Amino acid sequence: MRRNKLTSVELTQAILNRIVDVDNQVQAYLTLAPEWALDQARQADERRTRGEDAPLLGVPLAIKDVLCVEGLPCTCGSRILEEFVPPYSATAVERLREAGAVILGKTNTDEFAMGSSTENSAYFTTHNPWDFSRVPGGSSGGSAAAVASGMALGALGTDTGGSVRQPASLCGVVGLKPSYGRVSRYGLVAFASSLDQVGLLARTVRDAATLLGVVAGHDPRDSTSMPLPVPDYAGALNANGLSGVRIGVPREYFIPGMQAQVAEAVRAAIDVMGGLGAQVREVSLPHTDYSLPVYYLVAPAEASANLARYDGVRYGLRVDAPEGMWETYRRTRGAGFGSEVKRRIMLGTYALSAGYYDAYYLKAQQVRTLIKSDFDAAFRDVDVIACPTAPTTAFKIGEKAGDPLQMYLSDVFTLSCNLAGICGINLPCGFDNQGLPIGLQIMGPAFGEEIILRVAHVYEQATEWHTYKPQIPTGPAAEEVPA
Ligand code: GLN
Question: Which of 339, 347, 411, 412 gets mutated to test ligand 1 (max ligand atoms within 8 A of its CB)?
């Protein structure tokens, strides 16, 4: 577009055509705004004709449906917010718009971002573009699938315990979870406020760096956003090799139950980084085993408090009861929330109740500090940590839906990053023998986004994994695709 070879209207129309061709099969979008998208594209073209430029001028992007976009429904994948149309936009969305981006629509998510497969969406399950019988990961599965299948050039997701990196891994795209406080959470519908972070999904590390540069930075409307300057992330991607970079490989992240081909591909990727000049050494994160239990106390506890606001009075669904207020609450929440959300509310309420608070919630917070100390100690010896993003490649739709513990294990390698508040990125590093993408995770210290982006970029440019795209037959949905 900068070279005047393409207009944003042409590009946006091409992406909308692609959506018409493949989204009946992938089902990544919950809401599509084609007319508004073309309007935004026309405005971007006018700005360019006037000689203006901006980092994302005319670039079509998708937004996970837990982030508010003024005037578009924000369902959070839940029936309780089916009719909710926010009167304002999230700060991250506003910054994309100011940078010239074209918003295409809202992408599917597990209900209130609770899940790892989009099967907890109250509307439908998104299909993995590499194999329609498999999940795209979650909860930002709609955003990851949209980017992987060419239905957006990039997307916003959110990551509370892995929800950007894990779907990026399962869909073979780049997924960046910034450090806690790097991107404003204003306008992000809260799940677990001390863990939630807005993240980016993109085809390449450079695209992810460009998106981060736009959305990052202090926001007076989010008191947990850090008043720190925003580095030129994309501009910092100029290193040729990895000499001088110390990469730690945590021994606790290669576990017996994981898929052997995932471990092999990640180890091979680490060897490639060694060949590019990095010093690779083993590190230990001894409290790794506690990440899952700690997360499933802290996250539901915060969720139970955050979701108390859906009472049928202030937002969305209301099921009136003649008996009065309490019965109205009960019926509204009973009808509006799905079973995973109810499970989390019950777990969280239990963990916070008098008599159990010290044994569960307080204990979990103490162990959370130990998990953070593990990373502090490791980052005294190494610059980044390299490990798998998810223990397996994309699993079958329905395979884990009835077994919450199996589903929770999908995030076993991503949860501790959120508990510690640090940053992490997924990038493709191979395929298994079924042709499904495998993800490499690179974690860095809090506000160390520059170094993880640089390491990821050097690896990406030295390999060809990011050049593969799923082959999607266009036309009506195939018979064998499960509903
Ligand atoms: N899968 C994890 C959960 O269900 C993480 C979700 C997320 O990061 N939003 O809580």
Answer: 411
